[in-house]
Specification:
mainly alpha; Arc Repressor Mutant, subunit A; globular
Length: about 90
């Protein structure tokens, strides 16, 4: 994914890091870099919102703090598929 605009952190890396960011498991400097990217990049911010909502839904549905590994892997695979589908729809010329 790329919005086509120049950023200190490229879009693909920002989206790769969003789960680590959401979990609060990254160093403060990296966290600030991801936050800055999300503040200046609308497509990634929209993706972050989807990821955050997804993570909240999974936590609420499982009734646990951590998603079981097999469930997480299946969901991440499906999320990647949806991301690809959305990127093809969003960036298709009309």
């Amino acid at each position: 994914m790329s919005c086509g605009e120049p950023h200190d952190m490229d879009c693909a890396r920002a989206i790769e890091q969003v789960y680590v960011y959401l979990d609060g498991e990254m160093p403060d400097t990296d966290c600030a870099e991801v936050r800055r990217h999300l503040e200046e990049c609308a497509p990634c911010l929209r993706e972050y919102g989807l990821e955050q909502a997804f993570k909240t839904l999974v936590a609420r549905s499982c009734g646990c703090d951590e998603t079981p590994t097999d469930v997480r892997e299946r969901l991440l695979g499906r999320l990647r598929e949806v991301r690809i589908e959305l990127s093809q729809v969003e960036f298709q010329p009309e």
